[in-house]
Design goal:
The chain is 13% helix and 34% strand. The chain is mostly beta strands. The chain has three domains: 91 residues, no CATH class; 158 residues, no CATH class; 134 residues, Glutaredoxin (3-Layer(aba) Sandwich), CATH 3.40.30. A five-stranded antiparallel beta sheet has the order 1-2-21-20-19, with no helix packed on it. A hairpin with a 7-residue loop joins β12 and β13. The radius of gyration is 27 Å and the shape is elongated. It starts with 5 loop residues before the first strand and ends with a helix.
Protein backbone atom coordinates (compact mmCIF):
# COMPACT_ATOMS: atom_id res chain seq x y z
CA UNK A 1 0.00 0.00 0.00
CA UNK A 2 1.90 3.05 -1.28
CA UNK A 3 0.62 6.57 -1.58
CA UNK A 4 2.29 9.66 -3.00
CA UNK A 5 4.99 11.36 -0.92
CA UNK A 6 3.76 14.34 1.09
CA UNK A 7 6.22 16.95 2.36
CA UNK A 8 4.74 19.57 4.66
CA UNK A 9 6.30 23.01 5.06
CA UNK A 10 9.66 23.58 3.36
CA UNK A 11 11.84 26.32 4.89
CA UNK A 12 15.20 27.83 3.90
CA UNK A 13 17.67 28.51 6.70
CA UNK A 14 21.15 30.02 6.07
CA UNK A 15 20.92 29.02 2.41
CA UNK A 16 20.08 25.39 3.19
CA UNK A 17 16.72 23.73 2.76
CA UNK A 18 15.39 22.13 5.91
CA UNK A 19 12.18 20.16 6.15
CA UNK A 20 10.28 21.30 9.20
CA UNK A 21 7.75 18.48 9.10
CA UNK A 22 7.52 15.34 6.99
CA UNK A 23 4.66 12.92 6.53
CA UNK A 24 5.70 9.29 6.13
CA UNK A 25 3.10 7.82 3.80
CA UNK A 26 4.72 4.70 2.33
CA UNK A 27 4.31 1.30 3.94
CA UNK A 28 7.83 0.02 3.43
CA UNK A 29 8.66 -3.65 2.99
CA UNK A 30 11.46 -4.97 5.13
CA UNK A 31 13.86 -7.58 3.83
CA UNK A 32 11.98 -10.09 5.96
CA UNK A 33 8.61 -9.34 4.35
CA UNK A 34 8.97 -11.72 1.41
CA UNK A 35 11.25 -14.15 3.24
CA UNK A 36 9.11 -14.50 6.32
CA UNK A 37 6.57 -17.29 5.98
CA UNK A 38 4.73 -17.08 9.28
CA UNK A 39 2.02 -19.73 9.37
CA UNK A 40 -1.23 -19.15 11.19
CA UNK A 41 -2.68 -22.55 12.06
CA UNK A 42 -6.45 -22.76 12.34
CA UNK A 43 -8.34 -24.65 15.06
CA UNK A 44 -11.90 -25.90 15.38
CA UNK A 45 -14.44 -24.02 17.53
CA UNK A 46 -16.49 -26.35 19.72
CA UNK A 47 -18.05 -23.58 21.81
CA UNK A 48 -17.41 -19.99 22.83
CA UNK A 49 -14.57 -20.98 25.18
CA UNK A 50 -11.33 -21.03 23.23
CA UNK A 51 -7.83 -22.18 24.10
CA UNK A 52 -4.84 -19.82 23.89
CA UNK A 53 -2.12 -20.14 21.29
CA UNK A 54 1.28 -21.42 22.32
CA UNK A 55 3.68 -24.12 21.21
CA UNK A 56 3.11 -26.95 23.66
CA UNK A 57 2.80 -30.69 23.36
CA UNK A 58 -0.49 -32.26 22.40
CA UNK A 59 -2.79 -32.88 25.33
CA UNK A 60 -1.37 -30.13 27.55
CA UNK A 61 -4.13 -27.88 28.86
CA UNK A 62 -3.67 -24.19 28.02
CA UNK A 63 -5.27 -21.05 29.36
CA UNK A 64 -8.88 -20.76 28.21
CA UNK A 65 -10.89 -17.62 27.51
CA UNK A 66 -14.42 -16.81 26.41
CA UNK A 67 -15.48 -14.85 23.36
CA UNK A 68 -18.74 -13.40 22.11
CA UNK A 69 -19.41 -14.78 18.65
CA UNK A 70 -20.53 -12.61 15.72
CA UNK A 71 -23.55 -13.41 13.59
CA UNK A 72 -22.50 -16.68 11.92
CA UNK A 73 -25.60 -17.05 9.74
CA UNK A 74 -24.78 -19.06 6.62
CA UNK A 75 -21.66 -20.60 8.16
CA UNK A 76 -21.65 -24.38 8.40
CA UNK A 77 -18.59 -24.73 10.62
CA UNK A 78 -16.38 -22.39 12.62
CA UNK A 79 -12.68 -22.14 13.38
CA UNK A 80 -10.31 -19.68 15.01
CA UNK A 81 -6.74 -18.49 14.59
CA UNK A 82 -4.26 -16.10 16.21
CA UNK A 83 -2.22 -13.17 14.89
CA UNK A 84 0.75 -11.92 16.90
CA UNK A 85 0.27 -8.27 17.96
CA UNK A 86 1.89 -6.62 20.95
CA UNK A 87 -0.50 -3.68 21.27
CA UNK A 88 -3.18 -5.41 23.33
CA UNK A 89 -4.23 -4.58 26.88
CA UNK A 90 -5.74 -7.70 28.36
CA UNK A 91 -4.54 -10.46 30.62
CA UNK A 92 -6.09 -13.35 28.70
CA UNK A 93 -4.58 -14.45 25.39
CA UNK A 94 -1.82 -11.87 25.78
CA UNK A 95 -0.05 -10.59 22.62
CA UNK A 96 -2.40 -12.37 20.21
CA UNK A 97 -5.32 -10.96 18.28
CA UNK A 98 -8.07 -13.52 17.61
CA UNK A 99 -9.76 -14.26 14.29
CA UNK A 100 -13.01 -16.20 14.06
CA UNK A 101 -13.33 -18.09 10.78
CA UNK A 102 -16.76 -18.91 9.44
CA UNK A 103 -16.80 -21.83 6.96
CA UNK A 104 -13.35 -22.82 8.17
CA UNK A 105 -13.44 -26.26 6.53
CA UNK A 106 -16.40 -26.28 4.16
CA UNK A 107 -16.27 -25.41 0.48
CA UNK A 108 -18.27 -22.24 1.11
CA UNK A 109 -16.52 -18.88 1.07
CA UNK A 110 -14.65 -18.40 4.37
CA UNK A 111 -15.67 -15.36 6.40
CA UNK A 112 -13.06 -13.84 8.71
CA UNK A 113 -14.17 -11.87 11.77
CA UNK A 114 -11.26 -9.90 13.23
CA UNK A 115 -11.32 -8.64 16.83
CA UNK A 116 -10.10 -5.15 15.89
CA UNK A 117 -10.79 -3.56 19.28
CA UNK A 118 -9.25 -6.50 21.19
CA UNK A 119 -12.18 -7.03 23.58
CA UNK A 120 -12.91 -10.64 22.51
CA UNK A 121 -16.39 -9.50 21.46
CA UNK A 122 -16.90 -9.98 17.72
CA UNK A 123 -20.26 -8.23 17.50
CA UNK A 124 -18.78 -4.70 17.52
CA UNK A 125 -15.94 -4.97 14.96
CA UNK A 126 -17.87 -4.31 11.78
CA UNK A 127 -18.50 -6.64 8.88
CA UNK A 128 -16.57 -9.81 8.21
CA UNK A 129 -14.00 -10.07 5.44
CA UNK A 130 -14.85 -12.61 2.76
CA UNK A 131 -11.91 -14.64 1.51
CA UNK A 132 -12.93 -16.48 -1.71
CA UNK A 133 -10.58 -19.23 -2.84
CA UNK A 134 -9.93 -17.27 -6.05
CA UNK A 135 -8.64 -14.28 -4.05
CA UNK A 136 -4.89 -14.15 -3.57
CA UNK A 137 -4.91 -12.33 -0.22
CA UNK A 138 -6.80 -10.02 2.09
CA UNK A 139 -5.47 -7.07 4.08
CA UNK A 140 -6.37 -5.53 7.42
CA UNK A 141 -4.97 -3.32 10.19
CA UNK A 142 -4.53 -4.01 13.88
CA UNK A 143 -4.25 -0.89 16.02
CA UNK A 144 -2.86 -0.26 19.48
CA UNK A 145 -5.39 -0.43 22.29
CA UNK A 146 -4.25 2.96 23.63
CA UNK A 147 -3.96 4.74 20.25
CA UNK A 148 -6.17 3.60 17.39
CA UNK A 149 -4.12 5.66 14.91
CA UNK A 150 -1.02 3.53 15.60
CA UNK A 151 -1.40 0.38 13.54
CA UNK A 152 0.31 -2.51 11.82
CA UNK A 153 -0.81 -3.59 8.36
CA UNK A 154 -1.21 -7.32 7.72
CA UNK A 155 -1.52 -9.35 4.54
CA UNK A 156 -3.19 -12.74 4.94
CA UNK A 157 -2.85 -15.35 2.20
CA UNK A 158 -3.30 -19.08 1.84
CA UNK A 159 -0.30 -21.30 2.44
CA UNK A 160 -0.35 -23.26 -0.80
CA UNK A 161 1.81 -26.39 -0.91
CA UNK A 162 0.87 -27.88 -4.28
CA UNK A 163 2.55 -31.25 -4.78
CA UNK A 164 4.76 -30.75 -1.70
CA UNK A 165 3.19 -33.66 0.10
CA UNK A 166 6.07 -34.53 2.40
CA UNK A 167 6.58 -30.92 3.47
CA UNK A 168 2.87 -30.50 4.11
CA UNK A 169 2.78 -33.67 6.19
CA UNK A 170 5.74 -32.47 8.27
CA UNK A 171 3.99 -29.14 8.94
CA UNK A 172 0.71 -30.85 9.76
CA UNK A 173 2.49 -33.19 12.17
CA UNK A 174 4.25 -30.27 13.84
CA UNK A 175 1.16 -28.11 14.40
CA UNK A 176 -0.97 -31.04 15.47
CA UNK A 177 1.60 -32.13 18.04
CA UNK A 178 1.96 -28.56 19.36
CA UNK A 179 -1.68 -27.61 19.70
CA UNK A 180 -2.42 -28.34 23.33
CA UNK A 181 -5.91 -29.81 23.39
CA UNK A 182 -7.11 -27.75 20.39
CA UNK A 183 -8.31 -29.51 17.24
CA UNK A 184 -5.93 -28.46 14.44
CA UNK A 185 -7.66 -28.06 11.06
CA UNK A 186 -4.68 -28.75 8.79
CA UNK A 187 -2.52 -26.72 6.42
CA UNK A 188 -5.23 -26.57 3.75
CA UNK A 189 -7.38 -24.56 6.15
CA UNK A 190 -4.57 -22.43 7.61
CA UNK A 191 -2.93 -19.22 6.42
CA UNK A 192 0.30 -17.37 5.83
CA UNK A 193 0.71 -13.87 7.25
CA UNK A 194 3.04 -10.97 6.46
CA UNK A 195 3.29 -7.67 8.29
CA UNK A 196 4.21 -4.12 7.32
CA UNK A 197 5.81 -2.59 10.42
CA UNK A 198 7.69 0.31 8.78
CA UNK A 199 6.60 3.70 7.53
CA UNK A 200 8.81 5.68 5.18
CA UNK A 201 9.11 8.62 2.82
CA UNK A 202 11.49 9.59 0.01
CA UNK A 203 13.15 12.94 0.72
CA UNK A 204 15.20 15.38 -1.39
CA UNK A 205 17.17 18.08 0.43
CA UNK A 206 19.63 20.23 -1.51
CA UNK A 207 21.59 17.72 -3.62
CA UNK A 208 20.94 14.81 -1.29
CA UNK A 209 18.15 12.28 -1.56
CA UNK A 210 17.28 9.34 0.66
CA UNK A 211 14.44 7.33 2.12
CA UNK A 212 13.81 7.69 5.85
CA UNK A 213 11.98 4.86 7.61
CA UNK A 214 10.77 4.20 11.14
CA UNK A 215 10.08 0.69 12.37
CA UNK A 216 7.78 -0.62 15.08
CA UNK A 217 10.35 -3.15 16.21
CA UNK A 218 8.27 -4.84 18.92
CA UNK A 219 5.14 -4.88 16.73
CA UNK A 220 2.68 -3.15 19.02
CA UNK A 221 1.60 -0.43 16.57
CA UNK A 222 3.70 2.29 18.30
CA UNK A 223 6.68 3.58 16.29
CA UNK A 224 8.43 6.03 18.64
CA UNK A 225 9.40 3.98 21.71
CA UNK A 226 12.93 4.97 22.88
CA UNK A 227 15.39 2.11 23.15
CA UNK A 228 13.06 -0.21 21.22
CA UNK A 229 11.94 1.06 17.83
CA UNK A 230 14.27 1.69 14.88
CA UNK A 231 14.99 4.48 12.40
CA UNK A 232 17.19 4.52 9.30
CA UNK A 233 18.25 6.66 6.35
CA UNK A 234 18.61 4.43 3.29
CA UNK A 235 19.04 4.97 -0.48
CA UNK A 236 16.23 6.81 -2.23
CA UNK A 237 13.24 4.58 -3.09
CA UNK A 238 15.00 1.50 -1.70
CA UNK A 239 12.76 -1.45 -1.02
CA UNK A 240 12.95 -3.78 0.77
CA UNK A 241 14.68 -2.08 3.70
CA UNK A 242 16.85 -3.83 6.27
CA UNK A 243 15.59 -3.82 9.85
CA UNK A 244 18.87 -4.86 11.45
CA UNK A 245 21.19 -2.50 13.30
CA UNK A 246 24.12 -4.29 11.64
CA UNK A 247 23.08 -2.80 8.30
CA UNK A 248 22.38 0.81 9.17
CA UNK A 249 19.21 0.78 11.24
CA UNK A 250 19.50 2.65 14.57
CA UNK A 251 17.58 2.20 17.79
CA UNK A 252 15.76 5.34 18.97
CA UNK A 253 17.80 6.94 21.73
CA UNK A 254 16.49 6.81 25.28
CA UNK A 255 18.05 10.02 26.52
CA UNK A 256 16.52 12.54 24.13
CA UNK A 257 13.88 12.99 21.49
CA UNK A 258 16.21 14.33 18.78
CA UNK A 259 18.67 12.07 16.96
CA UNK A 260 21.49 12.90 14.56
CA UNK A 261 21.44 10.64 11.50
CA UNK A 262 23.87 10.60 8.61
CA UNK A 263 23.41 9.83 4.92
CA UNK A 264 26.67 9.79 2.99
CA UNK A 265 28.32 13.17 3.75
CA UNK A 266 25.22 14.93 5.06
CA UNK A 267 23.79 14.85 8.57
CA UNK A 268 20.26 15.52 9.80
CA UNK A 269 18.49 16.04 13.11
CA UNK A 270 15.30 14.00 13.41
CA UNK A 271 12.76 14.65 16.15
CA UNK A 272 9.06 14.63 16.90
CA UNK A 273 8.31 11.13 15.66
CA UNK A 274 4.63 10.53 16.34
CA UNK A 275 3.33 7.32 17.89
CA UNK A 276 1.72 6.24 14.63
CA UNK A 277 5.03 6.67 12.77
CA UNK A 278 3.57 8.95 10.11
CA UNK A 279 4.97 12.35 11.07
CA UNK A 280 8.40 13.61 12.13
CA UNK A 281 10.59 16.69 11.89
CA UNK A 282 13.84 16.64 9.88
CA UNK A 283 16.40 19.43 10.02
CA UNK A 284 19.57 19.69 7.95
CA UNK A 285 22.62 19.53 10.23
CA UNK A 286 25.55 20.20 7.89
CA UNK A 287 28.25 18.06 6.35
CA UNK A 288 29.97 15.24 8.16
CA UNK A 289 32.67 12.76 7.24
CA UNK A 290 31.49 9.30 6.25
CA UNK A 291 32.93 6.59 8.43
CA UNK A 292 34.87 5.19 5.46
CA UNK A 293 36.48 8.57 4.76
CA UNK A 294 38.39 8.23 8.03
CA UNK A 295 40.42 5.59 6.19
CA UNK A 296 41.74 8.32 3.88
CA UNK A 297 45.56 8.34 3.39
CA UNK A 298 45.86 5.32 5.65
CA UNK A 299 46.86 1.83 4.68
CA UNK A 300 43.86 0.02 3.24
CA UNK A 301 42.54 -2.73 5.52
CA UNK A 302 43.94 -6.08 4.47
CA UNK A 303 41.69 -8.88 3.35
CA UNK A 304 41.57 -12.12 1.42
CA UNK A 305 38.80 -12.90 -1.05
CA UNK A 306 37.72 -15.70 -3.33
CA UNK A 307 38.63 -15.04 -6.96
CA UNK A 308 35.50 -16.52 -8.49
CA UNK A 309 36.68 -17.14 -12.05
CA UNK A 310 39.57 -19.30 -10.83
CA UNK A 311 38.11 -20.66 -7.57
CA UNK A 312 41.10 -19.58 -5.54
CA UNK A 313 41.81 -16.93 -2.92
CA UNK A 314 43.77 -13.71 -3.40
CA UNK A 315 45.14 -11.28 -0.85
CA UNK A 316 44.91 -7.53 -1.32
CA UNK A 317 48.63 -7.14 -0.68
CA UNK A 318 49.36 -9.19 -3.83
CA UNK A 319 48.24 -6.13 -5.86
CA UNK A 320 50.85 -3.84 -4.33
CA UNK A 321 52.73 -1.86 -6.98
CA UNK A 322 49.68 -0.84 -9.02
CA UNK A 323 46.72 1.44 -8.34
CA UNK A 324 43.69 -0.52 -7.13
CA UNK A 325 39.97 0.15 -7.41
CA UNK A 326 37.81 -1.84 -4.95
CA UNK A 327 34.12 -1.75 -5.79
CA UNK A 328 31.49 -3.12 -3.38
CA UNK A 329 28.08 -3.83 -4.95
CA UNK A 330 24.99 -5.99 -5.05
CA UNK A 331 22.66 -6.73 -7.93
CA UNK A 332 19.96 -4.46 -6.56
CA UNK A 333 22.14 -1.35 -6.77
CA UNK A 334 24.54 -2.06 -9.64
CA UNK A 335 22.91 -2.17 -13.08
CA UNK A 336 24.16 -2.86 -16.62
CA UNK A 337 25.48 0.69 -16.98
CA UNK A 338 27.61 0.19 -13.88
CA UNK A 339 29.33 -2.85 -15.34
CA UNK A 340 29.70 -1.16 -18.73
CA UNK A 341 31.55 1.68 -16.98
CA UNK A 342 33.75 -0.82 -15.13
CA UNK A 343 34.62 -2.36 -18.51
CA UNK A 344 35.48 1.09 -19.86
CA UNK A 345 37.79 1.62 -16.90
CA UNK A 346 39.44 -1.75 -17.48
CA UNK A 347 39.88 -1.13 -21.21
CA UNK A 348 41.09 2.48 -20.84
CA UNK A 349 43.72 1.53 -18.25
CA UNK A 350 44.72 -1.59 -20.20
CA UNK A 351 44.56 -3.48 -16.95
CA UNK A 352 47.00 -1.09 -15.22
CA UNK A 353 44.32 -0.25 -12.67
CA UNK A 354 43.66 -3.43 -10.74
CA UNK A 355 39.88 -3.65 -10.41
CA UNK A 356 38.42 -5.78 -7.62
CA UNK A 357 34.63 -6.08 -7.59
CA UNK A 358 33.21 -7.57 -4.40
CA UNK A 359 29.57 -8.64 -4.25
CA UNK A 360 27.93 -8.33 -0.84
CA UNK A 361 24.59 -9.90 0.00
CA UNK A 362 23.71 -11.98 -3.05
CA UNK A 363 23.86 -15.75 -3.25
CA UNK A 364 27.41 -16.97 -4.02
CA UNK A 365 25.96 -19.36 -6.61
CA UNK A 366 24.17 -16.49 -8.38
CA UNK A 367 27.31 -14.31 -8.37
CA UNK A 368 29.47 -17.17 -9.68
CA UNK A 369 27.05 -17.82 -12.53
CA UNK A 370 27.00 -14.10 -13.36
CA UNK A 371 30.80 -13.97 -13.48
CA UNK A 372 30.91 -17.13 -15.59
CA UNK A 373 28.44 -15.79 -18.14
CA UNK A 374 29.84 -12.26 -18.42
CA UNK A 375 33.49 -13.27 -18.34
CA UNK A 376 34.71 -9.90 -17.11
CA UNK A 377 38.50 -9.86 -17.08
CA UNK A 378 39.00 -8.01 -13.83
CA UNK A 379 39.00 -9.64 -10.37
CA UNK A 380 35.52 -10.68 -9.27
CA UNK A 381 34.93 -11.87 -5.73
CA UNK A 382 32.66 -12.01 -2.70
CA UNK A 383 32.80 -9.62 0.26
CA UNK A 384 32.43 -11.21 3.66
CA UNK A 385 30.81 -9.29 6.52
CA UNK A 386 34.31 -8.84 7.96
CA UNK A 387 35.58 -7.15 4.79
CA UNK A 388 32.42 -5.05 4.51
CA UNK A 389 32.83 -3.80 8.08
CA UNK A 390 36.58 -3.17 7.79
CA UNK A 391 35.93 -0.78 4.92
CA UNK A 392 33.03 0.83 6.80
CA UNK A 393 30.72 0.56 3.81
CA UNK A 394 27.56 2.53 4.53
CA UNK A 395 25.80 2.22 1.18
CA UNK A 396 26.02 0.03 -1.89
CA UNK A 397 27.53 0.45 -4.42
CA UNK A 398 30.69 2.03 -3.01
CA UNK A 399 34.20 2.34 -4.48
CA UNK A 400 37.67 2.86 -2.98
CA UNK A 401 40.70 4.19 -4.88
CA UNK A 402 44.04 2.88 -3.54
CA UNK A 403 47.50 4.01 -4.64
CA UNK A 404 50.42 1.74 -5.51
CA UNK A 405 51.33 1.44 -1.83
CA UNK A 406 47.74 0.36 -1.07
CA UNK A 407 46.87 3.52 0.80
CA UNK A 408 43.33 4.86 0.48
CA UNK A 409 43.30 7.94 -1.76
CA UNK A 410 39.56 8.50 -2.26
CA UNK A 411 36.34 7.01 -0.93
CA UNK A 412 32.93 6.75 -2.57
CA UNK A 413 33.98 6.91 -6.23
CA UNK A 414 31.67 5.23 -8.72
CA UNK A 415 33.27 3.62 -11.83
CA UNK A 416 32.72 6.73 -13.96
CA UNK A 417 34.42 8.95 -11.36
CA UNK A 418 37.25 6.43 -11.04
CA UNK A 419 37.77 6.52 -14.82
CA UNK A 420 38.04 10.31 -14.65
CA UNK A 421 40.55 10.07 -11.78
CA UNK A 422 42.66 7.64 -13.77
CA UNK A 423 42.59 9.74 -16.93
CA UNK A 424 43.52 12.94 -15.03
CA UNK A 425 46.31 11.22 -13.11
CA UNK A 426 48.11 9.71 -16.07
Amino acid sequence: MIRRIVLLLLLVVNGYSTIAQTALVTRVKTQLYDKFYSIIPSYKCTGNTLECYTDVYAGEVLERFSVTFPDLSGCTDTGYAFVYFGGLERSSCKNYSVIIIGNAQSLLIPKLFIDKNHNLNFTDDGASIDFPYTTQNIEFDLCNAKDNTACLHYTLSRYRLDNQYKFQKNLDDFFESNAGTKKYLGMNNSFRIQCHNQWGVDVKINNDSFRIVVEDHNMNGIYNEPGIDHIALVPYALEPVSNTTKEGSKVLEKSKDAMVLQHLNESYIVSGITANGQTMTIKYNGKQLRAAEKLGHKRAPRFKFELLAYRKYKKLRSYRGAPVYIFFYDFKTADTNTFNMLKQLYDASSGQVKIITLNYGNSPAVVKEFVKQKYYMWNNGLATKKIYDRYRVDQLPMGFYLNKRLRVLKVGLDPKEMLTEWQMGR
